[in-house]
Structures are given as structure tokens and as C-alpha cells.
Amino acid sequence: MSGKERSNSLAKKKKRLIFGVSIPVFLMGLVSLFTDISSESIQSILPLFIFEIGGSVLALGIISGITNAIANILKGITGWMSDKINRRKPFIVAGYSLSNLSKPLIGLSPSWEMVLGLKTTDRIGKGLRTSSRDTLISYYAEKKGRAFGLHRAMDTLGAVFGSLLAFILLYFAWTYSQIIFFSIIPGLIAIALILPVKDISSRELVKKSGMKSKKERMEKIDKNFIKLIVILGVIEFASLDVVFLILRAADYVPVDLIFLIPIFYLILNLVYTIFSPINGSLSDKIGRKPVIVVGLSILLISCIILAFPIQVSPFSIVLIIIIYIMHGFYLASVDPISRAYIADLAGKEKRGRAYGYYYFSVGFISMVEALVFGFIYSVFSYTWAFIYISILLAVCIVIFTITDFSKIIKKKVET
Known about the structure:
By secondary structure, the protein is mostly helical.
């Protein structure tokens, strides 16, 4: 097929919309949905499983910090590589396959160290696929905010189903190990669904738009763009890893109701699912920055609440549900909007590397954040850990609010 024919084919596909996005974006949303059913049925009980096999709060911090760092650093490398070879799908297929085939084996782990090894393999898969997948979504998107918002909504809907699955299986007395191993079924479905999605060359998009591709533009990322990436990375440093929220939730419920925690996680993801497309579309209209600031402010309030001790009661259960709702809204306000921000400021030919640089910085920052938070939580107390993260959040909100992103956008448009 010639370049012109493929461009026409792409134009036709873009016109076929499902929930306001192209078919390939919707398919990638389904892939993320089934992957998250697999992942989040594990994630909603993983801290409890790690404690069951002899792990500690510090072990949670080590697992979360190292595995997230590896995933994000690899996103940086593979983002650059996908631009270099001008192909996305090989990274996407390899990444989803590695993750969905390795993480069910966590259920067979006799120690937290083995969980670390298998979780690392899972995160390597995430690192392989994410930058290329986000780039492909941006290529197929008519409106980037809507596309990323819907994709994140479907991704998180999978987390809702995964949490519900974990709750149901716990209710019927399945062990943590059995639930984790069962996750291989939705994982295999996800692998099958990614195969029909076709790759796109950035050069085809450039030709279709009638613009000339300049090699020197391919070699550089604007310094102002790097500034944006660093600031978005700092936001990640002040984020709260959900494993610590799950751990803290155990202090809010009676021991005999511990099986409710997957339901709290389900509520979080349901809120994320509902508000991701809403906040994504809102950011297309009023700008990315106000939506992100609101999300960070809500996270700050929840972290301040979590810093205080509480006695288990009906009120504590209601309060932790509210905190999970707040965390879900925070994620829906920051996660997809940050990705759309990157797409706004990167050219089509550099978008893979742009996501790569973003995730690369986030990788190092998130590792330090999780290790420090886990250390403070383990050695001192949850109170000091949440005071620490609240101070960081307040500083980040101020920095993000006073930064004038319009100058960065203006420079990018002019170049």
C-alpha cells in the first residue's frame, strides 16, 4: 500500500468514532481495560499478600519505588527507540505480553523478594509499551484531551472490575495466591485484543498535513519543554502511591471487615473512570493547568486527613471511603491531563521521545519518593509520613501555579 493510500485509510478510520474516539483508540482502551482487570485484582490485595508472606512497610516502599522506577526509566528509553525506528506496535505487543504473562506468578511467591522480582518483570513490560502506546493514541486522536481521557477511563474501568473481582473471590474465601494467579485470564484477552491495531508512521502524518519534515527538528527537544517535564516530574514526587493508601485503610476498618478494602479501591477507580473523560474534555476547553491544580489540592487535603490518628468506628469507614473518592478525583485530574500536556507541546515526530523524557524523569523521582515515604512510615509513623508528603504537595502546588506555561506553549508554536 502506498503512503497516500495508507493516509486515506487512516483518515477513514479516524471518521469512524466510538464514544467520540477512533476505533484504534477504543481498541487500545479495551486492551488497557482487560490488562487492568488483571493488574488491579492483584494490586487491591498486594500489600495484604506481602504482609502475609512476611513483608513490611519498608518492603512495600522498596517494591513500589524500584519497580515504578524501572518502568518509567524504560518508558524513557523505549520512547526514544520508537522514534528512532519509527515503529510503535512491536514495543506495545511485547510490553503487554510480558506483563500479562509474568504477574500471575506473583501468587506463587514464598517471599517479598520474589514478589519484587516478578513485579519488576511486570513493570519492564509496562516500560516497554507505555510511551509507544501513548504516542499511537495521540496519532489516532482527533481531540487529544478526549482521547486520553476516554483511554484512562477505560483503563480505570478495568481497575473497577479487577477490584470487584478481588472482593468477590475474597468473599468466597479464595486465598490471595489463588486470586493473583487467576489474573492470567483477562491478561490473555488483552494480548489478543492489541494484535489488530495497526502501526502508524509519524512521517505519514507529516506528509498528510502538508508540512516538511526537517531532520534537525528530530534531533532536539526544546529547553522550555524540558522545563515542563521536570515540573510534571516534581508533581510525581509529591504523589501518594496507592499501596500506602491501601495500607493506611486497614487502620480505618475492623479486622473482620478487611475484605472491604478492594471495594474502597473499586470506588476510587470508579471515580477515576467517571471523571477522566470529563476532566480531559474540560482541559481541552479551559486549559490543562487549572484542572491539575484542583486535583493536587484535593490530594493535599486527603493527605492532611490521613496524618491524624483515628479510632475504628462507622465514622472511620465513611471517612476512608471519602478519602478514596478524593484520591480517585485527584488521579482523574492529573494523570491523563499531564499526558495531554506532553502531546500539546511536542511535535508529531518527537512525541515518542517527549513521552520518553517525561517518564524517564518520573522514574527516578518516583523511586526516591516511595523509598523515602516507606522509610518514614516504617521507622517513625504514618503521621510523619503524611506530614512529609503534605509539605511537598503544598510546595509543588505553589511552583506549578506560579509557572507561566503559556510562554512555553507560545515558543513551541512559533518554532
